[in-house]
Amino acid sequence: MLKQNSVFKKVLINNLLLALIPLILVMSVICYQFCLIYKNSAVHDAESYAQEYAERIRAEISASISRSDYILKYNYLITNLNKTFGTTAQTLEFTNNITTYLDNISGGVTQSVLIYFSNDSLFENKYFYRLSRLENAREINAIFRERQTNFFSDNRIYTDEYGHKYFTFYRNMPMNSGSVLSCRCYIPEISPSDYNMDIVHTGDDIGKGFLTVPVNENYLVTVEMDREALNRTYNRYILLFVCMTLILIAIIIFLAYKITGRITADISSFITQLDEKNVFAIEISMADNDPAELLVIKKAIKGLVTKVKTASDEKYRHILEKKRLELELLQSKIEPHLLYNSLAVVKLKAFHHGGSDIISIVDNLAAYYRTILNHGKEIVTVAEEMDMLQKYVVVNEMSHSKKYNLKIELPEELAQK
Fold first, then answer.
1. For residue 372, how far is the Cα from the chain centroid?
2. What is the pLDDT of residue 243?
């Protein structure tokens, strides 16, 4: 069961996302690379095997051409091939000698070398055939003339009565007019292997899924890859990496659960305190053993609380100042009334005792103070100010027993304002 704590869950989910997504991506790339390496290795092995087989074919072709060169350079054959022998014994002697020679050259392989001749005095045997028996003799001689060459390959692959594949090339015998040397080049047998190989003519449709290695300009060796074996290996690699990934995911989840619980325990406890108590009443202390994350949170909250407290104290001071000013204003409103009442009492006493001078002084003082206190107004007229000045002079005359001359020069329009 996961802890029922939002901080724990959020941190755990974030940690898992940060760890698992790269892990899955890395494991996928590694699995792909392993599959690619295996495929490249399989392709390389198949190509190497096909290349070895192509080398064997090229060696066989080279050997066949070399044998034909030896035959074409054999003076005894060239000298007597078109010769008309006088007796049957001479003819038999010639054919027997050439047969023995060709047996040695061909290794006794039947029809690996054939000489098509136009000499009517010669006998046919396993190496000698009349030119008329060569089906495409006319086309071959035409190619020799048109291409001005003594070599021609028909580029077809044949199979003999024993199932052996071969291809045939022809050599013109310029020293023996009307004669053609036909040579069979047997394709080496394919050694047993895991690969399906074949030799085809260049330009043939070989289909998909085949690798090709050129033998020469006319022939290709084809290798069919075993797709099922490749897919089986791919599946093994994928299954292996899936199992490894699941194991690593389980380990990471376990470690993340433990580490996250240890990291968030103090943070969760601190947040619980903030929820249960007044945040302004909590004393936030920094301990040396606090995790770095908790220290950051404590510093941030402490700074915020300090700012809030400062703003709250400032607002409280403003409220107190406002109350003080309101009280002073009230007092300023009360004091003039007390003054006026006191003057009224003095005036009444003076009246009872017949003090007319005192009554005059009190009346002028009361009028003066009413004007100077503005009756609660911030602005007074010029006329009110002049009247206050006159009363002030009268009070001073009475207090000093001295007459003052007051002269006021004021434009009429200002006196009315």
1. 85
2. 95
Q: What end-to-end distance do the CA atoms of the chain give, in Å?
A: 89
CB burial class (10 A; 0-12, 13-18, 19+) of residue 183? buried
Q: Tell me if residue 88 falls in helix, strand or coil.
A: helix
Which strands form 210-214's sheet, in the order they lie side by side? 196-201, 219-224, 210-214
Structure tokens at 177: 């007019």
**Tokens matching residue 241:** 């990496």
pLDDT at 116: 93
CB 338 within 8 A of CB 310: no
pLDDT digits (tens, 9 = 90+) for 356-396: 777 777 777 777 766 666 555 556 677 777 777 777 777 77
Q: Which amino acid is at 35?
A: C
Rounded to whole angstroms, the Cα distance separating 113 from 149 reads 20
Q: Are strands 128-130 and 113-117 parallel, antiparallel or unpaired?
A: parallel
How many residues are listed for the chain in this entry?
A: 417
One-letter amino acid of 173:
M
Long-range contacts of 204-209 (CB under 8 A, 24+ apart): none
CB 157 within 8 A of CB 169: no
Mean pLDDT of 27-34: 93
Report d(CA 221, CA 47) in Å as an integer. 10
For residue 327, report the phi and psi dihedrals to the nearest 5 degrees: -70, -45
Q: Does the pLDDT of residue 4 top 50, yes or no?
A: no
